[in-house]
Amino acid sequence: MSKIPCKVLVVDDEEDILMAGKLLLKQYFDVVVTTSDPYRIPGLLQEQTFDVVLLDMNYSTGATSSKEGFHWLKQILQLSPNITVILMTAYGDIELAVRALKEGASDFVLKPWQNEKLVAILKTACQNRDSVSKRSAEKAVRENTAYHYDGFIGVSAAMQRVYQTIDKVAATDANVLILGENGTGKEVAARALHKKSKRAGNVFEIVDLGAISTTLFESELFGHAKGAFTDAREERAGRLEAASGGTLFLDEIGNLSLALQAKLLTVLQSRQVIRLGTNKPRPIDIRLICATNMPLYDMVREGEFRQDLLYRINTVEIHLPPLRERREDIKLLADHFLKVYCQKYNRPDLHLNADTLRRLNDYHWPGNIRELDHAMERAVILCDGNELHPDDFYFAPSENGQHKQHVLESIHDNDYTLEALEKMMVQKALVKHSGNITHAAKELGITRTALYRRIEKHGL
Ligand SMILES: Nc1ncnc2c1ncn2[C@@H]1O[C@H](COP(=O)(O)OP(=O)(O)OP(=O)(O)O)[C@@H](O)[C@H]1O
């Protein structure tokens, strides 16, 4: 029996219910993740895109009011507005069910559940999501809406949700946190927000926090007085002051050390900066957009990111889905980049054959749109004839399977620098645990965040 391509998250405080649910549901659905801790919900929704959440209504011992369930229902719908939530409760209460549906749940299941009934409800939920997403993609192509949206190309339901959120929040001055893997378009989203905001006529200042050294952080961001340090030959305004009146885009915010997070938070709270070597506060008027590919919620739990800073920057969150989770967009993007590079390299007759398109469609695109862009440029430059074949592209091995061979080969390289050995150890741990970050980090004796940093550093 083939499984339904649907990701289900089950949240219940009773481990035996989770176990029973997982055993049952994984026979029918592609991915079933369980957690007994509702506080993990935001982190899990950030890490992966779920289609359906099966959510218990009561968590504290003896609780029957369902208050916690409504709280988490609201949180889930805020984080993933289009997710399907099915509520579970042991208390048959028609008023509760009606309220749940009014507040955004899609259905309601009584515990103990009947297996067939639960599976049927979840199947319907997954199928409805599938057809809604397909229909909206087809409609968008037909009407040519949402195909191009301010720098974005994409008709998938996931991207249309992103466009809608940008439309809603652009005009406000709300702080926005953009989350997504490398190359998913976080900067494109930040620019679109600025362009559609009332600050559009003013500066859009980008600060890549991953690229600023700890020593230069303060002078670069807050500015400095003449003579504040050896190289400070003249007084200079920092990037925050430069952004005043416009939008400040802080990229890679997850890379900031705890000490620098504290300094940034102080400035964001007071909305004023003091240039290094002076004591005069200067007001700044900025709209703040931050972005990261790091798991900020996990980092908060592990004490690596300040919760107060997270709450300051995440008034609205935008999640950019990885390309492999919106495959409807691959052909559109491939055609777009093909057109761009055919023009650039004067190859007007080049086209993709069906086999190539299939390979592009099936590939996991770890570097997302940036990787597709570069892959197409390289293929256009290198291909002979007028047809692009799969061989014209480089498809990196996925985390499992062929990856193993790649790692083993790298062990035999005579490169014994610490960097090379570190990279190899990280690769080995990832392969051993099939890409499971928590398990790989445990094996390596480092935190998940430290592992994410190394994965990024070594381009894995
Ligand atoms: N939906 C899209 N349509 C067309 N081009 C896109 C789209 N998303 C991203 N791109 C292009 O892909 C490249 C990467 O995008 P961007 O720099 O915004 O990603 P990012 O998530 O900020 O990456 P990183 O985390 O590595 O900084 C850019 O060239 C951008 O123009």
TrEMBL record:
Highest taxon above the source species: Bacteria
Q: Which SUPFAM superfamilies match?
A: CheY-like, Homeodomain-like, P-loop containing nucleoside triphosphate hydrolases
Q: Where is the Response regulatory domain?
A: 7-126
Classification lineage: Bacteria, Pseudomonadati, Bacteroidota, Cytophagia, Cytophagales
Q: Which InterPro entries match?
A: AAA+_ATPase, AAA_lid_NorR, CheY-like_superfamily, Homeodomain-like_sf, HTH_Fis, P-loop_NTPase, Sig_transdc_resp-reg_receiver, Sigma_54_int
Boundaries of every Sigma-54 factor interaction domain copy: 152-381
What protein name is recorded for this chain? Sigma-54 dependent transcriptional regulator
Q: Which residues carry this modification: 4-aspartylphosphate?
A: D56
What keywords is this UniProt entry annotated with? Answer: ATP-binding, DNA-binding, Nucleotide-binding, Phosphoprotein, Transcription, Transcription regulation
